[in-house]
Design a protein that fits this description.
Layout (H helix, E strand, L loop, with lengths): L7 E5 L9 H15 L1 H4 L3 E5 L7 H12 L5 E2 L8 H21 L3
Parallel strand pairs: 1-2, 2-3
Amino acid sequence: HIMRAGILVHLVEPMPMDQTDPIANYHAIRKELAEYSSDLAARPEILAITKAELPDAEVVHEMLCDNLGRQDIFLISAVTGQGLNKLVTKIAALLVEQNAELATAPQ
């Protein structure tokens, strides 16, 4: 259940089958998430562009980085394995950090 998620890993498809704009799709999902729960929307988010093997994936990655003013967006591929180790490492590090914070938080 999403309400138990300590972190969010948001996967953005660079070339949606319905021809929609992947950046607009990302913003729409974030808006819906905030409308559903402001607490959930405030949780740490790891963002990744999927299907890095596709021709436009790198362009969409750069555009989303520019749009959000972030350079920590992953570019990953399940087909080639590109970026997966870095993504998993980031997820693990963030979970360790959160667990440490929970362990030291007053009860």
